[in-house]
């Protein structure tokens, strides 16, 4: 989920000789390939994503993702805060930090 969102965002800001004119239209495979290539070259990035529609992060469909923002530093650091809606009612923030092989997250209980 995060990787997919990050891949879309990384197309911004990386200049190369294969950039396309604004009037050109890309198919999904080409767009994702270019975003993936840009992500490979990106050492750090900051992202802020707002979600339209229903995107659930659990199989039961009880945790709906509303937004995510954070920082990524290769090769092993992520700091992200998610805004989620629980059971169609309460909105909460969940923060997750990973450094190397260790991870911390806020406790919802």
Radius of gyration: 16 Å
Number of helical stretches of at least 4 residues = 2
Order of secondary-structure elements: HHEEEEE
State mean pLDDT (0 to 100 scale): 83
* Side-by-side strand order of the widest sheet: 1-2-3-4-5
Our measurement of the CA-to-CA distance between the termini, rounded to an integer number of angstroms, reads 24 Å
Shape: flat
Structural commentary:
The protein folds into 2 domains: 1-42, no CATH class; 43-109, no CATH class. Helix 1 crosses helix 2 (28-41). The protein is flat and about 45 Å long. The chain has helices at residues 2-9, 28-41; strands at residues 44-50, 63-73, 77-86, 90-99, 102-105. The protein is α+β, with helices and mostly antiparallel strands and 109 residues long. Strand 3 (77-86) and strand 4 (90-99) form a beta hairpin. Helix content is 20%, strand content 39%. The chain has a 5-stranded antiparallel sheet, covered by helices on one side. It contains 2 helices and 5 strands.
In short:
This protein is an alpha+beta fold and 109 residues long.
Indicate the topology.
Layout lengths: L1 H8 L18 H14 L2 E7 L12 E11 L3 E10 L3 E10 L2 E4 L4
Antiparallel strand pairs: 1-2, 2-3, 3-4, 4-5
Features:
39% strand, disordered N terminus, alpha+beta, 2 helices, 5-stranded antiparallel β-sheet, 109 residues, flat, single chain
């Amino acid at each position: 989920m995060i990787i997919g969102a990050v891949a879309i965002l990384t197309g911004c800001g990386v200049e190369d000789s294969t950039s396309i004119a604004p009037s050109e239209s890309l198919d999904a495979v080409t767009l994702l390939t270019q975003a993936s290539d840009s992500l490979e070259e990106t050492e750090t990035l900051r992202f802020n994503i707002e979600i339209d529609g229903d995107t659930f992060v659990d199989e039961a469909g009880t945790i709906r993702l509303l937004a995510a923002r954070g920082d990524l530093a290769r090769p092993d650091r992520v700091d992200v805060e998610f805004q989620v809606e629980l059971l169609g009612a309460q909105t909460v923030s969940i923060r997750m930090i990973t450094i190397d092989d260790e991870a911390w997250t806020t406790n919802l209980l």
